[in-house]
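HUMAN: Spend a minute on the protein record below and explain its fold to me.
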Amino acid sequence: MSRRVSDHNQSTPLSVQEFKNLPDVAAALEADVPVAVALSGGPDSMALCWLLAQAAAGRKKAPVIHALTVDHGLRPESQKEAMKVGRALKKTCPHVVHTILKRRPPKTKAGLQEKARHDRYEMMAVYCRRHGIEKLFVAHHREDQAETFLFRLAKGSGIDGLGAMVPRQTDPDGVTGIVRPLLDVPKARLVATCRKNGLWFARDPTNEDPAFARVRLRRSFAVLEEEGLTAKRLAVTAKRMQMARAALDHCAKDAYDRLLETEGKNMVAFRFSGLQREPEEIRLRVILQAARKLAPGPAETEGYGPRRERLEELVQELFGSSVFKRATLGGFILGRDRKRGLATVEREKKPGK
C-alpha cells in the first residue's frame, strides 16, 4: 500500500524519502526506461523535477529524466523565460535533459488558457512518443485539484467531471501515461521544498490575471475556507467522485457485455429492451463506451458542457420517444432499429470516404 504525505505542517518541505513513497514514483524509477516531467519553471514543477532527480540518483541504472518546457508564445518574453528555466535546472539537476517545445500562439484569444493547456499536453505527448517515454510526470497539487473541482462545478459537470484530475491517465493515443503523484500535497510544501534546497523558480503573471476564470476561482479560496470548504476537503470530495465513477463504469461494462448484440469496426449494437431497463446513467455510459470502442481515446462528450448535455438529451429521446430514429453528435450517429430491436451507435462517415 502506498503512503500518503504527512499533513501536520503544510509548510514543511517534502523530503526525498516521502516522495519515493508516493504512488507510482518508485515503480517509474526502478525501470530502466526514460521518464519525463512537465517543467513550467514554477515552484511546483521545479520541486517535482528536483525530487525525481534526487530519487533516481545513486541507482545503478538510473532512468534518463527529460524535463519539457513549453514556450506558449503568449508573451514576447516567453522564449527568454523558457531558456532561463533551462539554465536554472542545469545548476541544480545537471543530469536532467532539458528541452524547450515551441508552440505557435493562437490567432484568437477565446479560451486562451484551455487551448494552451491542450496544446501543451499534445506537444509533450508527441515528444514522449518519439523518445520512447511511457511516463510523463506532472506537478499538479492539492490546490490545483480543488481549483479544477470548482471550475467544473461551475460548468455544471456531473460525477465524471467532478472527479477532477486522476493520479494516472493515459493520453488519447494510449502511449504516454500521465502521472500526478502530488495531488495530495499542499502547494506550500512544494514552495518550501524549493526554498530549503535553493531551487530557483518563476512566477507566471497569467496566474494572477483576473481575466481568467481559474484565477478568479483561486481567489475565492479564502472565502470558501471560512465556510469549511478547504482545498483538502474539496480534493477529498474529488477523490470520492473518482470512486463513484469507477463503480458506475464497472456496472456499465457489465451491462455492455450482457446486452451487446453486435460489435464491428463502424457500428456497435445493443438489445434495446434490455438497455432500456437499465438506469439512465448506466445507459449513458454504455453509449459512451461504445463511442470509445469505435474511436479510441477520450470521447469529447464524457466531461461537461454543451456536448455532454446534448448527449444526455439524445439518450433520453432514444429510450423515451416513440418516434426517435437517428441523431448525430460529435462524429457518431445514435439510432434505433425497431425491426431488429436494437439501439445502435455508428461512426459517422466523412464526406468523400
User: Anything to note?
Assistant: The longest helix spans residues 231-259.
